[in-house]
């Protein structure tokens, strides 16, 4: 768990997002950090040698977002751990529905965790997105 109110955590979260969204995906900086951050719950992924390599946030509306794993660290299960932790945090907080705005290339990633498309495709920062919502019952997800 990370705390946006603490400068060190804010710096770590910002630098991971900057590297992934601004430098890699060319998303404008002003979209990457926004006013929702101060009210959101934040999670950071950390290696055993204390390198911070991924992040995600959960907004009070139940929206999961700003999910990012540094490029060299992908494909090793970090994103899966972060998303599971974000879902658990949202469920523990009683947030419902739990949803996100997925970049289209990541739709398959979110489907694996029980999210299904619940909206039309739209563009944000010139990237195609789609709203996806988590199926309600955890039992239903396990049964899939
Ligand atoms: C999407 C992202 C967070 C995934 O992180 P990751 O650490 O590479 O994911 P994991 O290694 O935990 O993958 C978990 C599983 O999902 C699969 N997966 C990963 N990315 C996928 C994708 N884009 N589409 C479909 N499946 C995917 C993996 O193959 C893995 O499957 P397995 O369990 O059978 O091995 C990462 O690619 C990323 O940060 N991308 C850039 C930022 C971004 O686009 N964020 C999403 C914004 S909506």
How would you sum up this structure, described in words?
It contains five helices and six strands, in the order ααβββαβαββα. It has helices at 7-24, 29-32, 78-92, 107-111, 138-143; strands spanning 41-46, 52-58, 63-69, 99-103, 115-124, 127-134. The mean pLDDT is 94. Coenzyme A binds next to β3, α3, β4 and α4.
Keywords:
Aminopeptidase; 144 residues; 5 helices; 33% helix; single chain; 30% strand; 6-stranded mixed β-sheet; globular; alpha+beta; binds coenzyme A; 6 strands
Radius of gyration (Å)? 15 Å
CATH architecture: 3-Layer(aba) Sandwich
The SSE string, one letter per element, is HHEEEHEHEEH
Major β-sheet profile: 6 strands, mixed
CATH topology: Aminopeptidase
Mean residue pLDDT: 94
Q: How far do the termini sit from each other?
A: 29 Å
Please provide the count of β strands.
6
The total tally of domains equals 1
Ligands present: coenzyme A
């Amino acid at each position: 768990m990370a705390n946006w109110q603490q400068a060190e955590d804010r710096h770590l979260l910002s630098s991971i997002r900057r590297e992934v969204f601004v430098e890699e995906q060319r998303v404008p900086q002003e979209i990457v950090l926004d006013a929702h951050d101060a009210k959101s719950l934040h999670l950071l992924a950390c290696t055993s040698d204390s390198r911070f390599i991924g992040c995600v946030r959960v907004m009070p509306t139940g929206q999961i977002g700003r999910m990012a794993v540094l490029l060299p660290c992908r494909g090793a299960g970090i994103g899966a751990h972060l998303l599971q932790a974000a879902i658990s945090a949202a469920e523990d907080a009683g947030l419902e529905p739990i949803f996100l705005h997925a970049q289209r290339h990541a739709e398959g990633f979110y489907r694996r965790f029980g999210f299904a498309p619940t909206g039309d495709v739209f563009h944000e920062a010139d990237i195609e997105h789609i709203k996806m919502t988590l199926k309600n019952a955890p039992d239903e997800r396990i049964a899939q």
